[in-house]
Design brief:
The protein has about 140 residues and is α+β, with helices and mostly antiparallel strands. It contains 3 helices and 7 strands.
Length: about 140
């Protein structure tokens, strides 16, 4: 069986990039085997203790809703800024939350690529639900 995974890596703004040769990347990862969830990974390059880092899991539906309206609760909150063409992500962690911005068009393209593989509404197989439960229980 062939599986299709979708990954996008983007340089984010508003994540504490210092302008001193350091950048912060946001990696969005989606797996066909776990179609309900998207993993968000923040990594600084090069690594530096003052720059944000972390891993979060969010429902793909929440990211889709967040393109049009504020959504999310708990560790991941999403707010569109249509005038600026951005989507603001607030990611809870120990200490102050990590706030990053991603281009609206980049997030939409990422979600479109996932929906080509598993369309919205077709992800509710028992295997997908089992994968989501397993991921949530690992926290």
């Amino acid at each position: 069986m062939t599986t299709h995974d979708v990954t996008t890596e983007v340089l984010v703004t508003g994540a504490g990039a210092s302008g001193r040769g350091r950048t912060t990347l946001l990696r969005l990862s989606w797996r066909e085997a776990d179609p309900l969830a998207v993993t968000l990974l923040i990594t600084p390059h090069p690594d530096h203790p003052s720059l944000p880092r972390g891993r979060w899991v969010v429902l793909r539906d929440f990211l889709r809703y967040g393109l049009e309206e504020p959504t999310g609760d708990g560790d991941v909150r999403i707010r569109p800024d249509t005038r600026a063409g951005l989507v603001h992500l607030t990611l809870a962690r120990d200490g102050p939350p990590c706030r990053v911005n991603i281009l609206h068009s980049v997030l939409r393209q990422f979600l479109t690529a996932t929906e080509v593989v598993v369309p919205t509404g077709e992800e509710a197989s028992s295997a997908a639900i089992d994968a989501l439960l397993e991921r949530l229980l690992r926290r």
